[in-house]
Structures are given as structure tokens and as C-alpha cells.
Amino acid sequence: MCMADANISGSIGEIRVILNKNAGSLKNSTNVSFEKAKSFEFTEYNIKETDYRIKTATFTSPVFFDLTKGQHLVSIQSLYHENFGGVILDVDYDEKTGLYTYQCQDWSRLWISKFEAIGKYNVYWLLRSLITRFNVPYGTSYAKLKNDGWAKVVSGLKAKDKYNQSYYTGNKYKGNPLDQTRQLLIRDKSYIEVIRDLVYNSLGYYDVWFNQKGVLQITPLSKSDWESTGLHLTAEDYTSRKFKFSTTNAITGVIVNGSDLKGGSAQKSESLIDLNLNAFFGSNATSISNPNNNTKAVTSSSKKSTSTTSSKSTTTSNNGNPFNKKAKKIIVSADRGGNPNFKDGIVKLLKKDGWSVKDLGIGPGTHSKSYDILSSKYAVNLTIYNGMCAGTIKETYDGWLKGKHEKYGVAHVEMWDTSHWTSKKGKHNKKGDWYHRNGDMSDYYLATAHDWKNGGNPTIKSVSAYFKKYKVLYCCGTTPANAYKQFKAGGYAKMKGLY
Question: Residue 53: is its pLDDT beyond 90?
Fold first, then answer.
């Protein structure tokens, strides 16, 4: 187990350093043996470990290592504590003492590059590729991996079957979480962050760590092993205990300040976290400035009001929001099959109309990402599609995503670019897509899209009845202007008074 903010200092032990002559090769940087490296004189060292086995170290020595010559790998060993292995990052020289102080990071330094991946992945195969920093492509057979010399690098990832939780005592979950396929959108994350997230967020008990040679280990544990590993302190092992509970800074409400001469809005704790904090801590509200307000300076009198604005920002207010009483803050995402000009046109109209837009771009995982960032600060989550799919619609309103928007008080609006809906007759719809291109969903039977991969073959026998039952907010348009006209009215159904 890892220790939270543990510090180890010492002057008894052994420190060895190796110059890595090919730092660009992951094969050359891992599975390192320090046995033939000579130990050298040092005065002291300090090793710090934080949660998730993240370690850093410093050591001082009269020996100089020229870091301009390449990557230096270091090993700190002692009989009195767990060893440290990693990379030297920088060196400071003290003229008074004649000593060099080296700052080091553990082996995770080799996996800090960031990457992007979108799609469905088997967790185990993805982990294998991540450990090699995608030098071994996803789906590569083990035989080819071994033949290409990557076997030692991935040796810390056990055979897939070893992660079956039914093999481990005390684990209630009996499946194999690493042998599952997940829809993933990975962005702005490093390799080591994603590896830890995938493993630690899986059902069961695991340890992710590096051995002395820098080989990343993913170790399955039984519940009993997990509970018995680490340091357990009894009452005799510490001198005192103190407990404190403070309500000094308990905030039960927020006033979002207005802009120019317009008032702001009040947010109660009930709308933010679904809990009335006043009942526990009394009424104690604070105020904040809206970061999206564009007013820099305001001068007012009984006769006139002048303001100075920034050309780069967009005013956010609840004035003109047809969906709820929140400030006009919106998430926009678009399916990869759509016309990018359509999405960009909608974003342009939104900004012109005073909306603060979080644009997630276009791609198969963008609407999923919108669920990841949902919070009460947004008023609307707008997803733009080019075609209708029964599966995508149903998973939102009566499937696994049901209630996600209601939790934060966010209106979910679906919009369709119907410029290509030109058929006059369909397999199930006598009137064809052309009839529905402006929003009329009567006499519309909806099947599942050809690229639906989430299982089953869901259908909606009557789109109009389904939309009415779940009060679906939607817009349709052959152009951004047409679709946005419905958006400004609160959706097609509200514009037509259907529900």
C-alpha cells in the first residue's frame, strides 16, 4: 500500500547512477539493472511518497553528474526502508559546502506525456498499449509484442485472467473488470494518469507501482491483503489525538453579481447540491463576480449610463433564456457525422445572443464528455446531430443517462441538422424524412442507427408520443438560422404549443 505524504531521510544506504545513452527508447529506459553500476559517496537523501505511490527524492553528494550529457537514472537503496528508483531532474551546487543537491522523480516520469484517444477499448489491451506509450498498437498480439522486444516492458501487467476477482478472498465482485470494453474519451491526461484511473476505478483491489528496475506493476489484491497491507497504528503508537469540527466558513448560498446596471441572481444550496444547508448552519451567503461578465468599468447618473467592454468576452445573463431562469451558459457538442459549418453557425448565433458557450467540438465522444462536465453552473446542454437514432435518444430519457440533467437543473436540448433529410418515402415512414425536417414528428417511426454499438436494437414506435411523454426539448432546421429560431422559442414543441 502507499503512504500519504511519507518522508524518509537517511545517510546510511547506497546510491547508484546510470547514464541512459538512449533516453528516447522506452525499452532502454525500463528494466534497468543497477548491479554493475558503482555506488558513490553521498551525505544524505530524502524520499517523499504521496498517495498512489508517487515518489520524489533528493540527495546531496560531492560527485557531479553532468545532466547535459543525457538522462541519468538513479537508485537509492537501504535496509531500513523501501528503495527508490527514478530519474534525476535537476542539480544545484552550493559553493560553501562543495556539495551538489539532486532532485529526482520516480519512474512515472517516463509516462508523463499527454495523449488523446476516443473510442471503445478493451481495458486490458488498452493498458498494455499505454504501458508501452502506444509503441505497441492497440490489439497487437502478445506473440508480436514479444517478438518486437516489449515483453520485459509489459511484464508487470499479468495475464488477463489473473485479474478475475473471483480468485481473491473477500472480494464481493466476481467478474474481471479489466476484460471489459468501455467507451472512452481521453484528453489532456498523461499515460500514467490514465493507467491509474483505469485500474483504480475498476471494481476490486489493486496496486499500481514500479519495481526497482522501472517496470510498471499492476497487481491484483484480495480484500484481506488490501486491508492488512501498510502500517496500522494503535493507541500506544501516538501521543495524543484532537478532534475539531468548524462551521466558521460554512456558506449556504451564493449571490452572483450582476453587470452594468442589471441585477445578478441568487443561488441557494438546494439548487446547487440538493441540500438545504440553512437548516444546519443558518443563513450565510457570499457573493461572487460572474467571470463571464464583460463590463470593465461603469459610470452612471440619473441621465446616462456608459460602459467599457472587452471585445474578447461574452456577457452571460439569464435575460432571454427560454429554458430556465439560469444565466445563459451552455455546453455545445456535435456528432462527427454532422456538417461542421452547422455547429459553428449555431455557436456564432449563441454568442451573438449573449450566451457563454463551452464548445466541445465535433466527434463521437463529445456528447459523452458533456455529461462528464455537467454541473449546476450551466443552463443548457445542447447536442447537435445529423441523424436521429432511437438508441441515442432512449439512453438519455429512459436509459442509463436518465436524470443526469435534472440532477443539476440543466435543460437538455437536442438539435438536428436536417439539410440532408430529403427522402420522400422511408421503410417505416410513409412521408419520409423530408416531412419531418422542420420539426413535425407525427407519423414517425424511429429505428436504431446503423453505427449503434451499445447493445440491443431499440426503436421508438411513435416519436411524437415519446417526445411528449418525456417533454423532450428539441429543434430541427435545414440551416443554423432555422434551427436557432426554434431554440430561441424554447424548442419546436413549445413554439407550436404541443406540450
Answer: no
Q: What is the mean pLDDT of the chain?
A: 82
- The dihedral over CA atoms of 242, 248, 250, 254, expressed in degrees to the nearest 10, equals -160
Query: What percentage of the chain exceeds 90 in pLDDT?
Result: 39
What are the DSSP calls for 110-162, one per residue? GG--EEEEEEEEEHHHHHHHHHTTTSS-TT--HHHHHHTT-TTTTTTB--GGG
Q: What is the DSSP letter of 348?
A: H
The beta-strand segments (E) located in 176-334 are 181-190, 205-210, 216-221, 253-256, 265-268, 285-288, 295-300, 305-309, 329-334
The H or E element that residue 273 is part of is helix 269-273
Q: Which amino acid is at 39?
A: S
Asked whether residue 435 is assigned to any structural domain, the reply reads yes
Q: Please report which helix (H) or strand (E) contains residue 193, including its range.
A: helix 191-200
**Cβ(16)–Cβ(37) below 8 Å:** yes
490: left (phi over 0), alpha (psi -120 to 50) or beta: left
Q: In which domain, by residue range, is 141 found?
A: 112-228
Model confidence at 304: pLDDT above 80: no
- Cβ neighbours of 375 (radius 10 Å): 12
Q: Are residues 152 and 33 in the same domain?
A: no
Q: Which residue has the cell 447493445?
A: 455
Mark whether 266 and 173 lie in a shared domain. Answer: no
pLDDT over 60 (residue 298):
no
Domain final position from 290, 309, 341 = 290
Asked if residue 120 and residue 94 are part of one domain, the reply reads no
Q: Can you give 430-481 as a three-state secondary structure string?
A: CCCHHHHCCCCCCCCCECCCCCCCCCCCCCECCHHHHHHHCCCEEEEECCHH
pTM over 0.70? The answer is no
Question: 128-156, pLDDT tens digit by residue?
Answer: 999 999 999 998 888 998 999 999 999 99
b/e burial code for range 69-83 (CB count within 10 A of at least 16 → b): eebbbbbbbbeeebe
- In tens, the pLDDT along 448-499 reads 655 544 445 688 999 999 999 999 999 999 999 999 999 999 999 999 999 8
